[in-house]
Design goal:
Blueprint lengths: L9 H9 L1 H4 L12 E5 L2 H11 L3 E5 L14 H8 L3 E4 L5 H9 L4 E4 L12 E2 L25 H18 L4 H25 L7 E4 L5 H6 L3 E4 L11 H14 L3 E4 L6 H10 L2 E4 L15 H16 L3
Parallel strand pairs: 1-2, 1-3, 3-4, 6-7, 6-8, 8-9
Antiparallel strand pairs: 5-7
Length: 315
């Protein structure tokens, strides 16, 4: 995928791991809690761990609230924290420095969310009538689209896999993990139904975003996402791409350019202004901050649904 790869040298990871014995008196936050200690790579993974683990787990996220997860550079301290934990829950190929640290750690339970559902390649235009074009070599298809959590169905599949992994790793609390997973999946199923119903009859099926994060969501509900940028939220669009978006907006009745909370809205507002469109937030839920339209995954997804309904219009 086309993201800036801030990789930490393998030597640095190895040094951090070998230094753990010296750090043992200063236990990392994720270790030594007396609970099942889980390190999560970023918010969508941490949310799953908390919902499924309940009172039995202590969850630590490697990505701070407000930090763009694509840009995470894992520190030696965080690498040590990872090593002291019982499990790590991450999404392979989203954060290269996390992948490096996980691969070199001796942690027993490594849960890769990307292995628990099906990932696809997505370009700037995804879903609806654009689905047949998704495999075109347009410069954005350097890897699989990682934004699976924005599709409630795929996120539920990941939740089920995480639940099973927790049951196996911490069998004393397996019954609770199973029950918590079932409850979470039921809520995600209800959210899926709400999106299906809410987006079934809209005036247009096309929406514009700054960041190609909503491809799975678009495909799930028969929409087309037109992204200003590709999978990298901070890449700059070409002049030709901007012109194409302006033409498409007029042809498809697009009213709104969506931007997100963790990245600058400058490009979205410039294009919207030039094309006579509105702007609004469509949150990829990569982290929860004071700017988020809700305090957790479900609340922000509800806000996303309302924003899409407003932008797409109703028949």
């Amino acid at each position: 995928m086309n993201v800036r790869r801030h990789l930490i040298p393998a030597v640095a990871v190895a040094a951090a791991l070998s230094a753990l014995s010296a750090c043992s008196t200063d236990s990392a936050a994720a270790g030594g809690t007396g609970k099942f200690d889980v390190v999560a790579s970023f918010y969508p993974m941490a949310f799953l761990a908390e919902q499924i683990g309940g009172d039995h787990v202590s969850v630590t996220s490697l990505t701070e609230p407000g930090q763009e997860p694509h840009d995470l550079e894992i520190s030696a301290k965080q690498t040590a924290q990872l090593q002291e934990s019982d499990a790590v829950l991450y999404l392979k190929n989203l954060q290269p420095s996390v992948d490096d640290a996980v691969s070199q750690s001796e942690i027993k339970t490594k849960i890769d969310a990307a292995s628990l559902t099906e990932l696809e390649k997505h370009g700037n235009e995804v879903g609806g009538h654009a689905a047949e074009h998704d495999d075109h070599a347009n410069g954005e298809l350097k890897g699989l689209d990682p934004h699976i959590w924005l599709d409630p169905v795929r996120y539920a599949q990941v939740a089920e896999g995480v639940g099973k992994a927790f049951e196996k790793a911490d069998p004393d609390h397996a019954a609770d993990y199973k029950a918590n997973t079932a409850a979470l999946v039921k809520k995600l199923d209800a959210l899926n139904t709400e999106f299906e119903t809410g987006l079934k009859n809209t005036a247009t099926k096309v929406f514009i975003t700054t960041h190609a994060a909503f491809g799975y969501l678009a495909e799930r509900y028969g929409l087309t996402e037109e992204a200003i940028n590709g999978l990298d939220p901070e890449s700059e669009p070409s002049a030709d791409r901007v012109k194409d978006l302006e033409k498409m907006a007029k042809a498809d009745g697009v009213t709104t350019v969506f931007y997100e909370t963790l990245v600058s809205d400058k490009t979205a507002k410039t294009i919207a202004s030039d094309a006579g469109l509105k702007t609004d937030v469509l949150d990829p839920i990569e982290g929860i901050t004071a700017k988020s339209r809700g305090k957790d995954y479900f609340a922000v997804q509800e806000a996303n649904l309302k924003a899409l309904q407003s932008a797409l219009g109703t028949k």
